[in-house]
Amino acid sequence: MVSATIDLLKKELPVEEGSLVLSKDVKTGLVLVDVVNGFCSVGAGNLAPVKPDKQISYMVKESARLAKLFCGEKWPVFAFLDSHHPDIPEPPYPPHCIAGTDEARLVPDLQWLENEANATLKCKDCIDGFLGSVEKDGSNVFVDWVKKNQIKAILVVGICTDICVLDFVCSTLSARNRRMLTPLEDVIVYSGACATFDLPVHVAKDINGALAHPQDLMHHIGLYIAKGRGARIVSELSFAAL
Ligand SMILES: [Zn+2]
To answer: Which residue intervals define the domain Isochorismatase-like in the entry (predicted)?
Structure first.
């Protein structure tokens, strides 16, 4: 898709992005969505970038920076890891992030979270992390994390803006509106630390059954829909004197 068309669509579907000042006054938790090798590391698998990708690299860098800052302040961090049983496919996607493989692990910049007491890691075998947090006994690991930490705002980052990030945000907003997540008030998506994959239309047309997925446009649409459902979208982050 030519960039003029993308510009036109962005004009017709504008997303105003704000700024956020993080401070001790509002208990904020960081939610990392699927910053795993299988989606982020070049050549790591069927759904990984085939060549270095600017949007994805920047998302990884920003996610790692935020995770360090949050853990440094002992602010709660929650990380979803896409992780599938080898015998249970996830249509329409090809096999990816099989449990126990490197694909299902956090990217190298974030692997330290595996041993970080401040972080809660949750493997999920579906797109929507809110649903993926439901345990056999009906409890929900994400809901319990919000309540236990008395979180008032979550800052959501990760991949893909229009898929796993979006579905998690939408479900979380519905759950918040049903008072299932008290005291959570704000669901905030930080656009710079979100990314999606690139499958341009000229490439997709030669792949049987593939759905075109132009990166910039789908990233924008993901943010647009999240905002429409009630998320705050921010493009700038700063920390009040801590
Ligand atoms: Zn998956």
So the answer is: 29-198
Q: Output the CA 132–ligand 1 centroid distance in Å.
A: 10
DSSP 115: G
- 8 Å CB contact between 154 and 187: yes
Instruction: Give the pTM.
Output: 0.96
Tell me how far the alpha carbon of residue 129 lies from the centroid of ligand 1, in angstroms.
Answer: 10
- Of 25, 24, 75, 27, the C-alpha closest to 186 is 27
79 Cα–ligand 1 center, Å = 14
> What are 81's two structure tokens?
């890891």
**How remote is the CA of residue 93 from the centroid of ligand 1, in Å?**
8
From the CB of residue 184, how many other CB atoms can be counted at a distance below 10 Å? 22
Question: Which domains are delineated in the chain?
Answer: 20-239 (3.40.50.850)
Instruction: Give tens-digit pLDDT for 133-156.
Output: 999 999 999 999 999 999 999 999
pLDDT digits (tens, 9 = 90+) for 73-119: 999 999 999 999 999 999 989 999 999 999 999 999 999 999 999 99
Angle subtended at Cα 117 by Cα 115 and Cα 118, rounded to the nearest 5 degrees: 120
Q: Is 168 buried (19+), middle (13-18) or exposed (0-12) by CB count in 10 A?
A: buried
What distance in angstroms lies between residue 136's CA and the mean position of ligand 1's atoms?
Answer: 19
